[in-house]
Amino acid sequence: MSTRPRLLDLFCGAGGCAVGYHRAGFDVVGVDIKHQSKYPFEFVQAEALEVLTGALPHDALDFDAIHASPPCQAYTRLQKQNKRVYPDLIPRARQLLRGTGLPYVIENVEGAPLLAPVLLCGTMFPGLRVLRHRLFESNAPILAPPHGRHPLVFTHDKRKAHYGQLDQDTSFVQATGGGNCTVANARDAMGIDWATKDEINQAIPPAYTEHIGRYLLAEIQRRALERAA
């Protein structure tokens, strides 16, 4: 049997977060309402929050930590422009996560109503070539690496002053929406080599959660020592 701690990955998507946590030292189980054929670890197709309410046989308390990435559409700039109403699942997720008593992380976009979140950016991690700001709320202490200056990003837009000056194979690229680079470069920029372009649009670079996972492991160890004292 594995002696690695177990992490429950809610609203898991294609598994960008999962790979980072696995690299940090966790065994990961993903849950998503949509089937994720390329999810790289054990996967359960289900409503994510139902795992926390006990409505499903997969008990959240069988895990050592929980990550949740509720849908972000309610907090994006695009939503504010089109005024479409999306569900706000963060308050409910937070309530249920706190109820488990486990170390947890809630991830979302800038503008989401997270409490004292840590912001991560691709400039903080050597090897990444994407900016992609994301917020992480946790009941464990987490520190962010230094936030580097944003570089110019490769573009096909001839109206941009730096058009034609960058090589998309080596520079930072835009890897969301329609994007401005090849799928291969989007995968390389994010550190995700298995996902489709649509999946990359929503994904988190594994480097982000590998960093956060180390803090979760420290919190799990701290709590174990506290119980043993």
Description:
By secondary structure, this protein is an alpha/beta fold. The chain has one domain (6-146, 204-228): Rossmann fold, CATH 3.40.50. The chain is built from seven helices and seven strands, in the order E-H-E-E-H-E-H-H-E-E-E-H-H-H. It has helices spanning 16-24, 48-53, 77-82, 90-100, 183-190, 197-202, 206-228; strands at 6-10, 27-32, 42-45, 65-68, 104-108, 118-120, 134-138. Strand 1, helix 1 (16-24) and strand 2 form a beta-alpha-beta unit.
The total count of strands amounts to: 7
Structural domain tally: 1
Beta strand %: 5-15%
- Going by helix content, strand content and strand pairing, the class is alpha/beta
First CA to last CA: what distance? 27 Å
The number of helical runs is: 7
**Strand arrangement, largest sheet?**
3-2-1-4-5-7-6
- Identify the overall geometry: globular
Q: Please provide the ordered H/E string of secondary-structure elements.
A: EHEEHEHHEEEHHH
**Which fold name is given in CATH as the topology?**
Rossmann fold
The fourth-level CATH homologous superfamily is Vaccinia Virus protein VP39
Please describe the topology of this protein.
Blueprint: E1 6-10, H1 16-24, E2 27-32, E3 42-45, H2 48-53, E4 65-68, H3 77-82, H4 90-100, E5 104-108, E6 118-120, E7 134-138, H5 183-190, H6 197-202, H7 206-228
Parallel strand pairs: 1-2, 1-4, 2-3, 4-5
Antiparallel strand pairs: 5-7, 6-7
Helix pairs in contact: 1-7
